[in-house]
Amino acid sequence: MDTHFFSHLIEIETLETEIDGFELPDAQKEEIKQLVHESIYHNVLDAILSELNEEDKKVFLSHLVSDDREEIWGFVNKKVLFIEEKIKKAAEDIKKELHEDIKGSV
Amino acid sequence: MGDDIKYKDLKKKLEERNRSLKERIVTKHKEAFDWAQNNTKQLAAGAMGGLLLIASPASNFLPKTTDNTNNTQFIDLPENMFVVSDVKKYLPDEVSELLPQQEEKISEVLTNYYGFKVLPDINGLRLNRTYGYIGLEQHLKRYPGDTIGEHFQTDFEANQYKSSGMAPGLGGFGYFAKSKSEMTQKDIDREKYYIAVQTFLAPNFLEKKKEYINFFKYKKMLVVNPNNGRAVVVVIGDAGPAVWTGKQLGGSPEVMSHLQRVDGRDKGAVLYFFIDDPEDKIPLGPVMPIDNSH
Predict the structure, then answer these.
(1) How far is it, in rounded angstroms, from Cα B202 to Cα B206?
(2) pTM > 0.80: yes or no
(3) Which CATH fold would you assign to the domain B100-287?
(4) pLDDT at residue number B286
(5) Which chain B residue has its CA at the smallest distance from A26's CA?
């Protein structure tokens, strides 16, 4: 499966298992999963960009466009202290909120 | 609560959360995203098509079989991103002449998106390029005595486009109408949505000059900004620009505004293909992709 450059840092299975347990058609489950993944992605992207100055944000987006993971990691590691921890925290924060959304609805 | 209601409720909640995350990211990092959208020099044409992947990550987490990417996943900045990403595959890194195979693929993509036939040539007649830098043209006199003060139909148009001024001479095909009283909406639209192209550089132009001039006069074309997917149906209304300018075509102020293209140092490239519209059914002006599963 293709992944994002930070996907290996993020535990997504718990949420997926929760969604898989719903009594919903598969297509609807996948739709929910997709929205969940998208939210996580955007929160992580926001967290990374928030650590960079304006010029570095542009460099980062350029690397992201080219999807050169070596370049991306080389860049963010150089620019942001403890970037992996910050990515994990951004993902965990949004996952908590998503859990609440899910618990409150289904 | 029934399952269907629960599902709809959750979906709505997640969509709202997602929308607000996207809005936050676009607002907080506006300068960087604007740069990525507008900067055509540092990023190859179609770079925003690459950012489409950035903005729609779900398929990267999910197995490929569940990939049902749709418009709701996009950050709001770029429009028509499917067009951008599909066209990007066939564009060279540098703005240059396209190979016949590239033209063929791009005309297929555009035909599919816009629902009318888009071609690099018609009956063997064509321009020298289908991909080039566009510059800003002035308004053209539509009839004898036309002035910039009388040129616009609304105050909004006047405010937006008056500053571009009116060309001192006539367009390459003369006036659009014989007089103000005889001017039709079609004439108005032709001037509003015109481009100037290098007719004089068309292959074998001198040998087929008469045929070419008849062919080019008010011929409909589709002009697409490959960086944002904005497209407009235009007519050829003038010849130019000169080769030394480094530009391959020019657009009326209205065309340039819709494409979000500017002249000068920040000039950008567009695709320009003929539209096969023998019955003259396709209206001039901005055009959006038709909804055929994109």
Answers:
(1) 9
(2) no
(3) Barwin-like endoglucanases (2.40.40)
(4) 95
(5) B66
